[in-house]
User: Which sequence fits this backbone?
């Protein structure tokens, strides 16, 4: 007899916070995720903390699995750390490992963009695992479960089918055959809607590019050098960005999301048919967002809201239905939140903060401020109403500019009006700059010694 609720944790790759029909983008069709939100709680202002690599999914997932901030979650925390950034800090408890130690049957399928040793610590079973960042969706190199935890590259094979279907099939098989008696933790990690964005034809046909409206913050090019204008993601569309090209990218993006949404529906149907729905905490989130033409950008290597805010939905026992929470949280706050919701102690290595009280309506306030980093060229602080982005010149690499952006999010959700140069808002700028400086010092940010306000002593 299960003593704790089951957990089904679904994570996608590159899904922007707003790119759901029910969350503000009526052009995209996401009936399953919209229904999941209607039946549970949507955390509408969930943020990631960024990272020191262009593959932002690595640190975002590392923070999630460890419950530790971006400078503690992995072995390396400098731009030069390279592949070490994907290795989770071995001194930290892991989410899967914690649940496994508490008696959960832990099972994973899909993308694992961190090290193999941490995967082996977390899961006692798995199928169709993709160790990597991206691949063609119809040629996914997969591993089946290796009880030794080695997962040598030569044992990989190419899956027959589309990525989202392959991973959903593995999750459905697990749910259909689960008869362990223990509660389960099922980790389902899609590679969609990450590029190459090649939705199956019937889902591509859902979207006519000419009928998709451009976002209000569409720009042909980013207005200045943000330190990462030529990364791989930014080369997916030519400069200057044109409305026709961006609309096609948006159509492909939406097609990938709608196809993934349908596969999630299959998994939720299997959960119900297996009799587990009433005793399973279902969570949906993304590792990070994506620009797709906003601010003249294509990727996630920036600190605008379209890239650092993610959808975060919870449904299940102890979670009320039909609530939207607009308080600030981090996605890596999910680790202690899940512990609270299923009745487990939070490991002492976790430094994130549970938002279970917000989910259940016992608390009304989230975090006062959230912060994010990108390599050695960008830092961000937001209190939900105001937001400051600090840009640094990386002299050794010859990129970036020494400058600030200030946005009044309460009146400018699309971040189109930079107020940093207006004296009327100097107080807000200095207030946020001090909060950012204090945080950077507290977490050991390598840029903490550089003044937040350019040209200041």
Assistant:
């Amino acid at each position: 007899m299960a003593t704790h609720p089951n957990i089904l944790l679904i994570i996608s790759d590159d899904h922007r916070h707003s790119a759901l029909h029910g969350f503000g983008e009526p052009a995209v069709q996401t009936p399953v995720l919209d229904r999941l939100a209607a039946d549970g709680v949507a955390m509408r202002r969930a943020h990631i903390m960024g990272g020191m690599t262009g593959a932002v999914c690595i640190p975002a997932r590392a923070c999630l699995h460890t419950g530790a901030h971006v400078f503690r979650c992995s072995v390396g925390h400098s731009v030069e750390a390279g592949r070490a950034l994907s290795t989770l800090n071995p001194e930290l408890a892991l989410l899967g490992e914690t649940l496994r130690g508490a008696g959960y049957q832990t099972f994973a399928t899909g993308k694992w963009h961190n090290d193999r040793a941490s995967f082996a610590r977390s899961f006692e079973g798995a199928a169709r695992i993709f160790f990597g960042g991206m691949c063609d969706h119809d040629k996914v190199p997969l591993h089946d479960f290796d009880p030794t935890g080695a997962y040598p590259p030569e044992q990989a094979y190419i899956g027959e089918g589309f990525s989202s279907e392959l991973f959903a099939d593995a999750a459905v098989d697990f749910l259909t055959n689960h008869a362990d008696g223990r509660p389960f933790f099922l980790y389902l990690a899609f590679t969609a809607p990450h590029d190459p964005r090649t939705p199956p034809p019937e889902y591509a046909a859902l979207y006519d590019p000419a009928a998709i409206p451009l976002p209000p913050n569409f720009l042909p090019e980013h207005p200045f050098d943000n330190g990462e204008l030529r990364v791989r993601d930014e080369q997916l569309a030519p400069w200057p960005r044109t409305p026709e090209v961006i609309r096609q990218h948006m159509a492909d993006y939406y097609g990938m999301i709608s196809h993934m949404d349908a596969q999630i529906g299959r998994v939720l149907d299997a959960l119900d048919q297996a009799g587990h729905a009433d005793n399973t905490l279902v969570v949906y989130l993304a590792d990070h967002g994506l620009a797709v033409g906003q601010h003249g950008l294509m990727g996630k290597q920036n600190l605008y809201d379209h890239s650092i805010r993610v959808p975060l939905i919870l449904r299940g026992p102890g979670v009320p239905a039909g609530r939207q929470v607009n308080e600030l949280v981090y996605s890596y706050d999910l680790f202690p939140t899940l512990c609270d919701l299923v009745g487990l102690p939070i490991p002492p290595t976790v430094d994130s903060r549970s938002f279970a009280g917000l989910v259940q309506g016992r608390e009304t306030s989230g975090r006062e401020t959230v912060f994010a980093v990108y390599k050695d060229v960008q830092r961000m602080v937001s209190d939900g109403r105001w937001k400051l982005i600090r840009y640094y010149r990386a002299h050794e690499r010859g990129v970036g500019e020494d400058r600030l952006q200030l946005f009044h999010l309460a009146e400018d959700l699309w971040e189109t009006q930079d107020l940093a140069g207006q004296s009327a808002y100097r107080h807000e700028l200095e207030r946020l700059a001090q909060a950012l400086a204090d945080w950077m010092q507290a977490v050991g940010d390598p840029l903490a010694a550089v003044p937040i306000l350019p040209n200041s002593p």
